[in-house]
Prior knowledge:
This protein is an all-alpha fold and 146 residues long. It has a single domain (26-143), classed as Cytochrome c/b562 (Four Helix Bundle (Hemerythrin (Met), subunit A)), CATH 1.20.120. 75% of the residues lie in helices and 0% in strands. The protein is built from 6 helices and no strands. The N and C termini lie far apart (58 Å).
Amino acid sequence: MRKMLMLAAAMAVVTIGTAQAQSGPNLIEYRQVGFSLLGGDFAGIRAVATAKGDVKTLEGPAKAMQRYAALIPALFPAGTQAGNNTKALPEIWSDQAGFQKAAAALGEAAGAISVAAKAGDEAGVAAGIKAAGEACGACHRTYRAR
């Protein structure tokens, strides 16, 4: 009897855990919203730089991009390959190392923008913008459906 109770309790824990996972946060939606915000930050950074605005104001948005880039790989766990009109390609899951490297490249470029912005270095900001654009494009070509 005791073994049956333990087995029933274990099954209940697994069932509850599975139900919570299924009703938990929708990571596809989270990452889509995050990428929209990332794109908005990057567009704003480019607009200020193009208009020859005060680059010191770009430190915060660049830091936000850097922080989000560090989270990107965690937002693509197994089981989130489909749904919510995701454009994620299977290569994300078959080439985790490459995907993590691509996210890190974006984070490094955004960090460079942040450092240059804090220093008021317009040329450094421009170089960081170029590197971030290249990182975004490389990731999209490999890991995102058009």
